[in-house]
Amino acid sequence: MTGFSSPQRRVLIIEDDVELAELTAQELSFGGFTTYIAESGAQAFELLKRHPISLVLLDLMLPGEDGLELCKQLRGIDNPPAIIMVTARNELADKVAGLELGADDYVVKPFESRELLARCKAVIRRHAAPQAQAETAVANAPPSRYHFLGWQLDLNARQLYSPQGVTISLPNSDFHVLLSLLEAPNKVLSRALLLRRAFGRNLNYEDRAIDVCISRIRHYIEKDRSKPEIVRTVRNEGYILYIDPQSLHAE
């Protein structure tokens, strides 16, 4: 472990290349992070049991392990940390697959230390935002839960509850996209706006991250996501949550 203890700045580096992991840990510690290193998924989960990790840097190319499956497992634990994928291949398919499984962002090897620090800070800031909102004074607190069409979105737990009572732990990006849509029902939100809210970055024409988030949200709430009725695409403009206002309320 390197760095000083800080509740929201603890990073777990899952990387089999010890030299690279130690170098990354050193760079992050200079940026004010406390870091832990795991060379395998098994070591990672042992560390997660013992330490309140806020962010995981996950190498997708671990020998003998499926990095994408490990990403999925991390998303499924209680109070899951934010996840940044680390990949040696600048392949769109790798990025999309990781985002679909719940990663919050990605970096491509080799990466600049300043870029990595900036992405870590941005992801942790977004990941911690709902908890920070919940800790505001009750009189001034924003809604803690949205009810819509039998579904419930818990802003504090960042979980979605189905009409049948099934609990879905949302990736950080999906949470922010769905929350943005619920806050502005029946209004078109641009992909650029949703991208800034979900990932903290500006849109470029190749960036399909928001489309991946929308696809996952449709998978959660639509009867037939190939023919969406709730989250609709507005061609050349963005997305809209199409809903009867009487079917939506916050508390």
From TrEMBL:
Q: Name where it's found.
A: Cytoplasm
Q: Which UniProt keywords apply?
A: Activator, Cytoplasm, DNA-binding, Phosphoprotein, Repressor, Transcription, Transcription regulation, Two-component regulatory system
Q: Which residues carry this modification: 4-aspartylphosphate?
A: 59
**Occurrences of domain Response regulatory (ranges):** 10-124
CDD domains in the record, alphabetically?
Answer: REC_OmpR, trans_reg_C
Q: Can you give the residue ranges of the OmpR/PhoB-type domain?
A: 143-243
One GO BP: regulation of DNA-templated transcription
Q: Which GO terms describe its cellular component?
A: cytosol; protein-DNA complex
Name of the protein in question: Response regulator transcription factor
